[in-house]
Write a structure and sequence with these properties.
Blueprint (H helix, E strand, L loop, with lengths): L2 E5 L6 H14 L2 E6 L4 E9 L6 E10 L2 E2 L10 E4 L5 H4 L3 H12 L4 E4 L3 H4 L9 E2 L6 H6 L3 E2 L5 E3 L2 E4 L5 H15 L5
Parallel strand pairs: 1-2, 1-6, 2-5, 6-7, 7-11, 8-9
Antiparallel strand pairs: 3-4, 10-11
Length: about 190
């Protein structure tokens, strides 16, 4: 059974963690949750309120990480999932996060990212010459990283599948499952 690495941290968007986590398990993948340390992570829920210029943040669910990023050998994983939320603000500064994520792009493995995860990818140079979705407020980060922002629910660029936010889950995960079935299928 192929193993998928899902990287999260405190303040990861609740829905952007649980939807892909459960969908991948349902499909038959073994999913490992990596974070800066082994601990119980606390997620947040971002929601939209009428007449409010941005989103609001509320406390979400908790979930334990399986492994610290420093312990991850990315060669052991077939694919990577990067949810958004506020966690990307500090994950992008983690040396092991950068090491792990860069491996997946360098090895041309499937990667799914959504929302604010793009702000972790732009500084790594892995968005250069790629088309990608992200939360629209992250479009300048995508451009600074050399990528082209696409305002769509599921953008496929090779083995990379991206989306804007949790509202795009059905299209995003449907597209990612197609990539996984071709490049990292569950056998049996």
């Amino acid at each position: 059974m192929p193993r998928i690495l899902l990287v999260a941290g405190d303040a990861t968007e609740d829905l952007e963690f649980f939807y892909p986590y459960q969908r991948l398990l349902e499909e038959g993948y073994e999913v490992h949750v990596a974070a800066p340390s082994r601990k119980k992570l606390r997620f947040v829920v971002h929601d939209f309120v009428d007449d409010f210029d941005t989103y609001v943040e509320r406390e979400g669910h908790s979930w334990p990480s399986d492994v610290a990023l420093s312990e991850v050998d990315p060669a052991e994983y077939a694919a990577l999932v990067l949810p958004g939320g506020r966690a990307p603000e500090y994950l992008r500064n983690d040396t092991d996060y950068r090491r792990v994520v860069t491996h997946f792009f360098d090895a041309d493995k499937p990667v799914a990212h959504i929302c604010h995860a793009a702000i972790t990818l732009a500084p790594l140079g892995v968005l250069k010459d790629r088309r990608t979705a992200a939360y629209p407020a992250c479009a300048p980060d995508v451009a600074l990283g050399g990528g082209t922002f696409v305002d769509a629910s599921a953008v496929v660029d090779g083995k990379i599948v991206s989306a804007r936010a949790w509202n795009d889950h059905p299209e995003w995960m449907r597209a990612f499952m197609e990539v996984l079935r071709e490049h990292a299928p569950v056998k049996g």
